Amino acid sequence: MNAGEDERAEREAAELDALAAVPDEVLADAVAERGLCLWEITYGDPPIWDGDGPPDRKLAARLCAGCPVRRECLEFELRLGGAETVGVWGGLDEDDRRALHAVWRARAGRFPRRETTDDATTDEGAGEEP
Predict the structure, then answer these.
(1) How far is CA 84 from the centre of its chain?
(2) What pairs with residue 121 in β-bridges?
(3) For residue 100, which of 86, 83, 88, 125 has the smallest C-alpha distance?
(4) Burial track 45-54 (b if 16+ CB lie within 10 A, e otherwise)
(5) Positions of E strands within the chain
(6) Tens of pLDDT along 44-93?
(7) Who has greater pLDDT, 43 or 80?
(8) How far apart are CA 6 and CA 100, in angstroms?
(9) d(Cα 7, Cα 25) in Å, to the nearest integer?
(10) Within 13 Å of residue 91, how many CA atoms lie on the same side as its CB?
């Protein structure tokens, strides 16, 4: 990444900090109920995409423009899909999300959740000071 991309990713990650404590289920419900892309695909005409190659920045910008839950969508995707998912999420294509994911993870309190075989859930880095 160049300096401008680094700065943009840092700004984007900082904006997501407000959602860090929101449970996954709440984010999922918000996106499912109010996400413009899900509404459009369910009730309207989905955007034209021929499937030849990955979604691009123009599609991401058009699909997510004005969506009331764009940040929630992006936070949810970064948590669950991380750097590996394809497609447009939260207004970002795969390349932009991968760049953001590294910065997002590095911020305080961003540790992946791991389920254990007992009823406890642990976080990598739990107990560490940010």
Answers:
(1) 11
(2) 115
(3) 83
(4) eeeeeeeeee
(5) 113-115, 121-123
(6) 565 555 556 555 667 777 778 889 999 999 999 999 887 788 778 888 88
(7) 80
(8) 8
(9) 30
(10) 14
In 3D, which of 16, 37, 25 has the Cα closest to residue 106?
Answer: 16
The residue with tokens 């369910």 is: 42
**Tally of residues, the chain:** 130
Give residue limits of the domains in the chain: 3-111
The tokens for 34 are 């109010």
The closest of 114, 79, 126, 96 to 8, measured between CA atoms, is 96
Distance CA 14, CA 33 (A): 25
Q: What are phi and psi of 123, to 5 degrees?
A: -115, 140
- What's the CA gap between 86 and 103, in Å, rounded? 18
Predicted confidence (pLDDT) at residue 122 exceeds the cutoff of 90: no
